[in-house]
Amino acid sequence: MTNDFSKGKVWRNIISQSIPLMLAQLVQLLYNVVDRIYIGHLPGADSLALTGIGLAFPLTTLIAAFTNLFSTGGTPLFSIARGAKEETRAEKILGNVFSLLLLSSLIILLFCYLLSRPILYLFGASDASYIYADAYLKIYLLGTSFSMLSTGLNGFINAQGFPKIGMMTTLIGALLNLILDPLFIFYFRMGVSGAALATVLSQIVSCIWVLRFLTKKADNPPIRRSHAPQAGLLIRKQNLKIDLKLMREIIPLGMSGFIMQATNCLVQVVCNATLKIYGGDLYVGIMTVINSVREILSLPVGGLTSGSQPVLGYNYGAKQYDRVCQGIRFTSIIGILYTMAAWLVVICSPHLLLSVFTTDAAMLDAGTGALRLYFFGFFFMSFQFSGQAAFTALGYSKQAVFFSLLRKAVIVAPLTVFLPTLGFGVDGVFLAEPISNAIGGLACFITMYFTLYRKLKKCRNR
Asked: Could you list the residue ranges that cross the membrane (predicted)?
């Protein structure tokens, strides 16, 4: 058993997990963000091309939702089993998650490929933007299984205390994507199709890396160097058969991560459809850019809270409740400080952030005000992240699911529809996000504090 999180300073354990994880997630963003940067600077059709990719977002988000369902449901159970020294159970969890990811990816691929045209028009496509959306999505979908396996299983590498190996998973694929993108997009003049193809090839390489690390035994290590890192808990054939009892444990915990992404999918659909009505293709493209900025700026706090989960879960399993409280305090404070700094950057430099993704004058002009509205009170998002991470890491699935559903489905989606009808127009779409962050984030954090954190403080004093 390696990386005993019940020893050493809690904040150092969290940082040691979080920094490589943040870098891994940052590199993971390159799969999509680099595509958008290149496409946004594609001569002759940059605005429509970005709009087309934006229309494909809900389906790519749906893929991430099912990845989260099994990955974020399995990794806390995996960490708790490790903390309790139940290695046989931990490996069974890992094997079941592999099978669930593979099976669901094949179902998603078939469904989305057959119904892509009506789905894209439902999402707000026009005849002009559909051409770009369809060209991107049809190729991107071919990498569904590779994407879900590499992303979903990477959490089990991190949970075993190998965040640097986890970072390499996405680093290898993203560097390949970075090289192939301009080659396919510009040199071979494939445009958005080239961006999708580069992404799929990169995902295949990342998937191979993950599977080699999680299937190779110590006598045949995947990295042919002396003293190379080696996973102690592996994917084994006898654990691949789906255990319905274990699946009923995984899915409730994973529902939080699933609903977070599934409701993101819902919000993206509602936003695109509403923006098409009130602003046309231009504002759908602007939302694509804003979503890209949001993914980048929210990544550090997301990486911090994700990195804290193995530490919190391990100490909870080891009944080290004081250390769990320390971890919750640390991630909450750092998250608030970071998101306040990020909000300041958006207020001061919106044009700079937008210009990374587009040179289109109309998008830059209209997008500046939209970006400021969307990120207003950005620090409230940290409360959602901290509360959600604590609930998920310690196995409180019902609370985690409830607050995921509350913020997106109950607050932001209805506001996105109704605020424009009250005279706000397209501004109402962008205002829905900060309102939901404030209400949902505070509700989640306050509930976590009074029902979980204070309970842990009482337990540590016994």
From this structure: 21-39, 59-81, 93-116, 136-157, 169-188, 194-215, 330-353, 373-397, 409-429, 435-453
Express each pLDDT in 104-113 by its tens digit. 999 999 999 9
- Please classify residue 29 by burial: count the beta carbons closer than 10 Å to its beta carbon, then call 0-12 exposed, 13-18 middle and 19+ buried: middle
pLDDT band at 222 (very low <50, low <70, confident <90, very high): very low
- Give just the sign of the alpha carbon dihedral 265, 267, 269, 275: negative
Question: Considering the domain boundaries, does residue 2 fall inside one?
Answer: no
**Euclidean distance between CA atoms 453 and 15, whole angstroms:** 21
pLDDT single digits (tens) 332-385: 999 999 999 999 999 999 999 999 999 888 999 999 999 999 999 899 999 999
Q: What is the 3-state secondary structure (H, E, C) of 177-190?
A: HHHHHHHHHHHCCC
Residues 6+ apart with CB under 8 A from 438: 377, 380
What's the pLDDT band for 5 if we cut at 50, 70, 90?
A: confident
**Distance, CA of 30 to CA of 38 (rounded, Å):** 11
Q: Which tokens belong to 449?
A: 């504090």
pLDDT, tens digit (0-9, with 9 covering 90-100), for 275-291: 999 999 999 999 999 99
pLDDT at 262 over 90: no
- Say if 3 falls within a structural domain: no
The structural domain count of the chain equals 1
Describe the crossing of helices 144-159 and 281-317 by its angle, rounded to 10 degrees.
30
DSSP percent split of the chain into helix, strand, coil, nearest 5: 85, 0, 15
Q: Is residue 1 part of a domain?
A: no
* Residue 192 within any structural domain of the chain: yes
